[in-house]
Amino acid sequence: MWEAKAREDWAAYFDTLARHHLYFEIRRDKADADSTKLHTVFGHDPRVAGGRIWAVYTEGMLPVPEPHRVFERRSLRWFARGWAPADPPWIVVNPGSPCEAFLPSAPPHSGVWGRHGERLGVPGCGLRLRTLQVGGPLQGAVAHGLACGALLLARCGRPWNALAFHGHGYLQERERLKESWGVTSRADWQEQQRTLLDPDGVNPVWEFALELRRTIARDFGGYVDTAYWRDAAARVLRRRAEGEVVITPDGVTTAPATPGPETEARVNGVQQLIGRIARYEARFRADGLLDENGFVSSVYAWNLGRASGMARWGLGSRYCDLAEAEAAVLEAGRAAARSYRSWQDFSAAYILGRCLHFDEEEFGGWYTGVLEVHRLLMSAPGSPWLTIPFR
To answer: Are residues 198 and 337 in the same domain?
Structure first.
Protein backbone atom coordinates (compact mmCIF):
# COMPACT_ATOMS: atom_id res chain seq x y z
CA MET A 1 0.00 0.00 0.00
CA TRP A 2 2.81 2.40 0.86
CA GLU A 3 4.58 1.66 -2.42
CA ALA A 4 1.37 2.14 -4.42
CA LYS A 5 0.66 5.42 -2.65
CA ALA A 6 4.24 6.65 -3.17
CA ARG A 7 3.94 6.20 -6.92
CA GLU A 8 0.33 7.49 -6.89
CA ASP A 9 -0.96 4.21 -8.28
CA TRP A 10 -4.37 4.40 -6.62
CA ALA A 11 -5.79 1.47 -8.57
CA ALA A 12 -3.11 -0.79 -7.03
CA TYR A 13 -3.73 0.80 -3.62
CA PHE A 14 -7.46 0.11 -3.76
CA ASP A 15 -6.90 -3.42 -5.06
CA THR A 16 -4.59 -4.15 -2.13
CA LEU A 17 -7.15 -2.68 0.24
CA ALA A 18 -9.91 -4.84 -1.25
CA ARG A 19 -7.85 -8.03 -0.80
CA HIS A 20 -7.64 -7.51 2.96
CA HIS A 21 -10.13 -7.04 5.75
CA LEU A 22 -10.52 -3.61 7.30
CA TYR A 23 -10.94 -3.23 11.06
CA PHE A 24 -12.85 -0.46 12.82
CA GLU A 25 -13.54 0.30 16.46
CA ILE A 26 -16.87 -0.53 18.12
CA ARG A 27 -18.29 0.12 21.58
CA ARG A 28 -17.51 -2.90 23.74
CA ASP A 29 -20.14 -2.22 26.40
CA LYS A 30 -22.91 -1.99 23.81
CA ALA A 31 -21.59 -4.95 21.82
CA ASP A 32 -21.63 -7.08 24.97
CA ALA A 33 -25.21 -6.03 25.66
CA ASP A 34 -26.39 -6.63 22.08
CA SER A 35 -24.10 -8.50 19.70
CA THR A 36 -26.62 -8.35 16.85
CA LYS A 37 -25.82 -4.69 16.11
CA LEU A 38 -22.67 -2.78 15.28
CA HIS A 39 -21.99 0.13 17.60
CA THR A 40 -19.32 1.93 15.61
CA VAL A 41 -16.97 4.46 17.18
CA PHE A 42 -16.28 7.34 14.79
CA GLY A 43 -13.24 9.56 15.11
CA HIS A 44 -12.17 13.16 14.64
CA ASP A 45 -9.51 14.63 12.38
CA PRO A 46 -9.08 18.43 12.04
CA ARG A 47 -7.74 17.99 8.52
CA VAL A 48 -11.22 17.41 7.10
CA ALA A 49 -14.22 19.73 7.06
CA GLY A 50 -16.37 19.07 10.11
CA GLY A 51 -13.70 16.79 11.55
CA ARG A 52 -15.77 13.56 11.52
CA ILE A 53 -14.01 10.48 10.13
CA TRP A 54 -14.35 6.71 10.14
CA ALA A 55 -10.92 5.31 10.99
CA VAL A 56 -10.18 1.85 9.56
CA TYR A 57 -7.06 -0.28 9.87
CA THR A 58 -5.43 -3.07 7.94
CA GLU A 59 -4.37 -6.04 10.06
CA GLY A 60 -0.72 -5.09 10.47
CA MET A 61 -1.57 -1.54 11.57
CA LEU A 62 -4.04 -2.35 14.34
CA PRO A 63 -3.45 -0.87 17.81
CA VAL A 64 -2.34 -3.22 20.59
CA PRO A 65 -5.43 -4.82 22.20
CA GLU A 66 -6.78 -2.93 25.19
CA PRO A 67 -9.49 -4.14 27.59
CA HIS A 68 -12.12 -1.58 26.62
CA ARG A 69 -11.18 -0.92 23.01
CA VAL A 70 -12.33 -3.56 20.50
CA PHE A 71 -12.62 -3.87 16.74
CA GLU A 72 -14.76 -5.53 14.12
CA ARG A 73 -13.71 -6.24 10.55
CA ARG A 74 -15.38 -6.01 7.16
CA SER A 75 -14.46 -5.96 3.47
CA LEU A 76 -13.97 -2.85 1.37
CA ARG A 77 -17.09 -3.87 -0.55
CA TRP A 78 -19.10 -3.79 2.70
CA PHE A 79 -18.08 -0.18 3.31
CA ALA A 80 -19.13 0.80 -0.22
CA ARG A 81 -22.51 -0.94 0.03
CA GLY A 82 -23.29 0.02 3.61
CA TRP A 83 -22.98 3.80 3.42
CA ALA A 84 -25.63 5.70 5.38
CA PRO A 85 -26.25 9.47 5.41
CA ALA A 86 -25.36 9.64 9.13
CA ASP A 87 -21.87 8.20 8.49
CA PRO A 88 -18.84 10.51 8.49
CA PRO A 89 -17.96 11.94 5.07
CA TRP A 90 -14.47 10.41 5.11
CA ILE A 91 -13.02 6.95 5.70
CA VAL A 92 -9.39 7.23 6.78
CA VAL A 93 -7.23 4.18 6.15
CA ASN A 94 -4.44 3.56 8.70
CA PRO A 95 -4.53 7.12 10.11
CA GLY A 96 -1.18 8.63 10.94
CA SER A 97 0.82 6.02 9.03
CA PRO A 98 2.86 6.38 5.80
CA CYS A 99 0.15 4.48 3.92
CA GLU A 100 -2.69 6.66 5.19
CA ALA A 101 -5.40 7.58 2.68
CA PHE A 102 -8.65 9.56 2.84
CA LEU A 103 -11.58 7.96 0.99
CA PRO A 104 -14.84 9.86 0.42
CA SER A 105 -17.51 7.68 1.98
CA ALA A 106 -20.60 8.84 0.09
CA PRO A 107 -21.74 8.17 -3.48
CA PRO A 108 -20.96 9.08 -6.18
CA HIS A 109 -17.41 9.85 -5.00
CA SER A 110 -17.10 6.49 -3.22
CA GLY A 111 -17.52 4.79 -6.58
CA VAL A 112 -13.85 5.39 -7.36
CA TRP A 113 -12.72 2.95 -4.65
CA GLY A 114 -16.00 1.05 -4.30
CA ARG A 115 -15.64 -0.58 -7.72
CA HIS A 116 -12.45 -2.29 -6.55
CA GLY A 117 -14.31 -3.78 -3.60
CA GLU A 118 -17.13 -4.98 -5.83
CA ARG A 119 -14.72 -6.57 -8.31
CA LEU A 120 -12.61 -8.41 -5.72
CA GLY A 121 -15.40 -9.28 -3.29
CA VAL A 122 -14.80 -10.58 0.22
CA PRO A 123 -11.17 -11.35 1.17
CA GLY A 124 -10.46 -15.05 1.46
CA CYS A 125 -8.99 -16.88 4.45
CA GLY A 126 -7.15 -19.71 2.74
CA LEU A 127 -3.75 -21.28 3.34
CA ARG A 128 -1.02 -18.66 3.39
CA LEU A 129 2.17 -18.06 5.37
CA ARG A 130 2.10 -14.48 6.60
CA THR A 131 4.64 -12.83 8.88
CA LEU A 132 4.54 -9.45 10.59
CA GLN A 133 7.92 -7.88 9.86
CA VAL A 134 7.08 -5.02 12.22
CA GLY A 135 5.02 -5.48 15.37
CA GLY A 136 5.57 -9.23 15.79
CA PRO A 137 8.58 -11.14 17.21
CA LEU A 138 10.77 -12.94 14.69
CA GLN A 139 13.21 -14.63 17.08
CA GLY A 140 13.35 -15.56 20.75
CA ALA A 141 11.14 -17.41 23.20
CA VAL A 142 7.89 -15.59 22.37
CA ALA A 143 8.39 -16.17 18.65
CA HIS A 144 9.07 -19.85 19.36
CA GLY A 145 5.84 -20.18 21.34
CA LEU A 146 3.88 -18.40 18.61
CA ALA A 147 5.40 -20.72 15.98
CA CYS A 148 3.97 -23.68 17.92
CA GLY A 149 0.57 -22.41 16.77
CA ALA A 150 1.60 -21.84 13.16
CA LEU A 151 -0.27 -24.94 11.93
CA LEU A 152 -3.47 -23.24 13.06
CA LEU A 153 -2.66 -19.68 12.02
CA ALA A 154 -1.23 -20.37 8.54
CA ARG A 155 -4.16 -22.65 7.72
CA CYS A 156 -6.48 -19.64 7.65
CA GLY A 157 -3.98 -17.04 6.44
CA ARG A 158 -3.37 -15.26 9.75
CA PRO A 159 0.09 -13.90 10.62
CA TRP A 160 1.80 -16.60 12.68
CA ASN A 161 3.68 -14.10 14.88
CA ALA A 162 0.80 -11.74 15.72
CA LEU A 163 0.64 -11.85 19.52
CA ALA A 164 -1.42 -8.64 19.67
CA PHE A 165 -4.30 -10.56 18.14
CA HIS A 166 -7.61 -9.18 16.84
CA GLY A 167 -8.44 -12.17 14.66
CA HIS A 168 -11.83 -12.11 12.95
CA GLY A 169 -12.94 -9.18 15.09
CA TYR A 170 -14.18 -9.03 18.67
CA LEU A 171 -17.70 -10.37 18.12
CA GLN A 172 -16.67 -13.18 15.80
CA GLU A 173 -13.80 -14.25 18.07
CA ARG A 174 -16.21 -14.53 20.98
CA GLU A 175 -18.71 -16.47 18.92
CA ARG A 176 -16.03 -18.85 17.64
CA LEU A 177 -14.79 -19.59 21.16
CA LYS A 178 -18.34 -20.20 22.30
CA GLU A 179 -19.21 -22.56 19.44
CA SER A 180 -15.94 -24.49 19.25
CA TRP A 181 -14.82 -24.55 22.88
CA GLY A 182 -17.80 -23.61 25.07
CA VAL A 183 -15.82 -20.61 26.32
CA THR A 184 -18.07 -17.72 27.30
CA SER A 185 -16.17 -16.06 30.16
CA ARG A 186 -12.72 -15.26 31.47
CA ALA A 187 -12.96 -18.19 33.91
CA ASP A 188 -13.82 -20.55 31.03
CA TRP A 189 -10.82 -19.33 29.06
CA GLN A 190 -8.47 -19.73 32.03
CA GLU A 191 -9.68 -23.29 32.62
CA GLN A 192 -9.33 -24.21 28.95
CA GLN A 193 -5.85 -22.69 28.75
CA ARG A 194 -4.72 -24.55 31.88
CA THR A 195 -6.05 -27.84 30.50
CA LEU A 196 -4.25 -27.43 27.19
CA LEU A 197 -0.93 -26.63 28.85
CA ASP A 198 -1.20 -29.42 31.43
CA PRO A 199 0.59 -32.64 30.34
CA ASP A 200 -2.16 -34.56 32.14
CA GLY A 201 -4.77 -32.82 29.98
CA VAL A 202 -3.96 -35.06 27.01
CA ASN A 203 -6.29 -37.98 26.27
CA PRO A 204 -5.06 -40.58 28.80
CA VAL A 205 -5.80 -43.60 26.59
CA TRP A 206 -3.78 -42.18 23.69
CA GLU A 207 -0.92 -41.33 26.01
CA PHE A 208 -1.00 -44.76 27.67
CA ALA A 209 -0.55 -46.48 24.33
CA LEU A 210 2.21 -44.15 23.16
CA GLU A 211 4.05 -44.16 26.48
CA LEU A 212 4.00 -47.98 26.53
CA ARG A 213 5.61 -48.12 23.09
CA ARG A 214 8.14 -45.48 24.13
CA THR A 215 9.11 -47.57 27.14
CA ILE A 216 9.48 -50.73 25.06
CA ALA A 217 11.58 -48.87 22.48
CA ARG A 218 13.84 -47.49 25.19
CA ASP A 219 14.25 -50.85 26.91
CA PHE A 220 14.80 -52.92 23.76
CA GLY A 221 16.59 -50.45 21.54
CA GLY A 222 14.42 -48.96 18.83
CA TYR A 223 11.75 -50.41 16.53
CA VAL A 224 8.67 -51.91 18.20
CA ASP A 225 6.62 -54.46 16.28
CA THR A 226 2.92 -53.55 16.30
CA ALA A 227 1.84 -57.04 17.29
CA TYR A 228 4.23 -57.02 20.26
CA TRP A 229 2.94 -53.56 21.21
CA ARG A 230 -0.65 -54.84 21.21
CA ASP A 231 0.27 -57.89 23.31
CA ALA A 232 2.19 -55.74 25.79
CA ALA A 233 -0.80 -53.43 26.17
CA ALA A 234 -3.04 -56.43 26.91
CA ARG A 235 -0.62 -57.75 29.53
CA VAL A 236 -0.33 -54.40 31.29
CA LEU A 237 -4.07 -53.77 31.34
CA ARG A 238 -4.88 -57.27 32.60
CA ARG A 239 -2.24 -57.05 35.28
CA ARG A 240 -3.64 -53.72 36.44
CA ALA A 241 -7.12 -55.20 36.50
CA GLU A 242 -6.03 -57.82 39.01
CA GLY A 243 -5.59 -55.13 41.64
CA GLU A 244 -2.82 -52.62 41.33
CA VAL A 245 -0.75 -51.52 44.33
CA VAL A 246 -1.07 -47.75 44.75
CA ILE A 247 0.17 -45.15 47.22
CA THR A 248 -2.51 -42.99 48.85
CA PRO A 249 -2.39 -40.38 51.64
CA ASP A 250 -3.35 -43.22 53.98
CA GLY A 251 -0.46 -45.43 52.88
CA VAL A 252 0.10 -48.32 50.48
CA THR A 253 -3.06 -50.10 49.39
CA THR A 254 -4.35 -52.33 46.62
CA ALA A 255 -6.87 -50.97 44.16
CA PRO A 256 -10.02 -53.05 43.65
CA ALA A 257 -9.86 -55.60 40.85
CA THR A 258 -11.69 -54.73 37.62
CA PRO A 259 -14.35 -57.19 36.37
CA GLY A 260 -13.21 -59.40 33.49
CA PRO A 261 -15.62 -58.16 30.78
CA GLU A 262 -14.73 -54.54 31.54
CA THR A 263 -11.03 -55.33 31.35
CA GLU A 264 -11.38 -57.16 28.04
CA ALA A 265 -13.35 -54.23 26.62
CA ARG A 266 -10.46 -51.93 27.59
CA VAL A 267 -7.92 -54.30 26.07
CA ASN A 268 -9.89 -54.45 22.83
CA GLY A 269 -10.25 -50.67 22.70
CA VAL A 270 -6.55 -50.00 23.27
CA GLN A 271 -5.51 -52.64 20.75
CA GLN A 272 -7.77 -51.03 18.14
CA LEU A 273 -6.24 -47.65 19.00
CA ILE A 274 -2.74 -49.08 18.52
CA GLY A 275 -3.76 -50.29 15.07
CA ARG A 276 -5.08 -46.83 14.19
CA ILE A 277 -1.88 -45.16 15.35
CA ALA A 278 0.28 -47.61 13.39
CA ARG A 279 -1.72 -47.01 10.22
CA TYR A 280 -1.58 -43.24 10.61
CA GLU A 281 2.17 -43.38 11.17
CA ALA A 282 2.61 -45.53 8.06
CA ARG A 283 0.79 -42.84 6.07
CA PHE A 284 2.87 -40.14 7.78
CA ARG A 285 6.07 -41.87 6.64
CA ALA A 286 4.77 -42.16 3.09
CA ASP A 287 3.91 -38.45 3.09
CA GLY A 288 7.20 -37.33 4.66
CA LEU A 289 5.76 -36.30 8.01
CA LEU A 290 7.90 -38.94 9.73
CA ASP A 291 11.30 -40.35 8.85
CA GLU A 292 11.53 -43.95 7.66
CA ASN A 293 11.67 -45.44 11.16
CA GLY A 294 10.13 -42.51 13.01
CA PHE A 295 7.19 -42.67 15.36
CA VAL A 296 5.20 -40.27 17.52
CA SER A 297 6.19 -40.28 21.18
CA SER A 298 3.25 -38.27 22.56
CA VAL A 299 0.32 -36.24 21.24
CA TYR A 300 0.90 -33.46 23.79
CA ALA A 301 1.77 -31.27 20.76
CA TRP A 302 -1.92 -31.38 19.74
CA ASN A 303 -2.73 -29.51 22.96
CA LEU A 304 0.31 -27.24 22.88
CA GLY A 305 -0.38 -26.00 19.34
CA ARG A 306 -3.94 -25.18 20.34
CA ALA A 307 -2.72 -23.59 23.59
CA SER A 308 -0.63 -21.18 21.51
CA GLY A 309 -3.75 -20.39 19.51
CA MET A 310 -5.98 -20.20 22.59
CA ALA A 311 -3.75 -17.53 24.10
CA ARG A 312 -4.39 -15.33 21.08
CA TRP A 313 -8.08 -16.19 20.81
CA GLY A 314 -8.50 -15.26 24.46
CA LEU A 315 -6.87 -11.90 23.81
CA GLY A 316 -8.98 -11.27 20.71
CA SER A 317 -12.07 -12.00 22.81
CA ARG A 318 -10.73 -9.92 25.75
CA TYR A 319 -10.92 -12.86 28.14
CA CYS A 320 -7.27 -12.15 28.95
CA ASP A 321 -4.78 -9.34 28.55
CA LEU A 322 -1.58 -9.15 26.55
CA ALA A 323 0.65 -10.19 29.46
CA GLU A 324 -1.45 -13.31 30.14
CA ALA A 325 -1.46 -14.24 26.46
CA GLU A 326 2.31 -13.88 26.29
CA ALA A 327 2.81 -16.01 29.41
CA ALA A 328 0.68 -18.80 27.93
CA VAL A 329 2.54 -18.65 24.60
CA LEU A 330 5.88 -18.84 26.42
CA GLU A 331 4.75 -21.88 28.43
CA ALA A 332 3.53 -23.62 25.27
CA GLY A 333 6.95 -23.09 23.68
CA ARG A 334 8.85 -24.29 26.73
CA ALA A 335 6.69 -27.42 27.04
CA ALA A 336 7.16 -28.19 23.34
CA ALA A 337 10.95 -27.91 23.61
CA ARG A 338 10.93 -30.24 26.62
CA SER A 339 8.78 -32.83 24.88
CA TYR A 340 10.05 -32.95 21.27
CA ARG A 341 13.31 -32.78 19.35
CA SER A 342 12.38 -30.78 16.25
CA TRP A 343 9.61 -28.95 14.43
CA GLN A 344 9.04 -32.07 12.36
CA ASP A 345 8.55 -34.21 15.49
CA PHE A 346 6.25 -31.59 16.97
CA SER A 347 4.22 -31.34 13.78
CA ALA A 348 3.77 -35.11 13.39
CA ALA A 349 2.58 -35.35 17.00
CA TYR A 350 0.15 -32.46 16.54
CA ILE A 351 -1.25 -33.98 13.36
CA LEU A 352 -1.67 -37.41 14.93
CA GLY A 353 -3.64 -35.87 17.79
CA ARG A 354 -5.81 -33.97 15.33
CA CYS A 355 -6.43 -37.12 13.29
CA LEU A 356 -7.26 -39.28 16.32
CA HIS A 357 -9.71 -36.60 17.45
CA PHE A 358 -11.42 -35.83 14.13
CA ASP A 359 -10.44 -38.00 11.19
CA GLU A 360 -11.70 -41.55 11.96
CA GLU A 361 -9.10 -42.99 9.55
CA GLU A 362 -10.72 -41.41 6.55
CA PHE A 363 -7.53 -39.53 5.63
CA GLY A 364 -9.84 -36.77 4.45
CA GLY A 365 -9.75 -33.03 4.92
CA TRP A 366 -8.86 -33.22 8.60
CA TYR A 367 -5.60 -34.83 7.52
CA THR A 368 -4.87 -33.51 4.04
CA GLY A 369 -5.56 -29.91 5.03
CA VAL A 370 -3.07 -29.87 7.90
CA LEU A 371 -0.54 -31.88 5.85
CA GLU A 372 -0.58 -29.06 3.32
CA VAL A 373 0.12 -26.53 6.09
CA HIS A 374 2.95 -28.71 7.42
CA ARG A 375 4.60 -28.81 4.01
CA LEU A 376 4.31 -25.05 3.66
CA LEU A 377 5.91 -24.45 7.07
CA MET A 378 8.71 -26.91 6.35
CA SER A 379 9.63 -25.36 3.00
CA ALA A 380 8.51 -21.72 2.56
CA PRO A 381 11.25 -19.07 2.70
CA GLY A 382 10.96 -17.15 5.97
CA SER A 383 8.93 -19.88 7.68
CA PRO A 384 9.45 -19.79 11.46
CA TRP A 385 10.08 -23.53 11.35
CA LEU A 386 13.15 -22.79 9.21
CA THR A 387 14.33 -19.62 10.95
CA ILE A 388 13.67 -20.34 14.66
CA PRO A 389 15.63 -23.16 16.36
CA PHE A 390 13.25 -25.63 17.97
CA ARG A 391 15.45 -25.91 21.04
So the answer is: yes
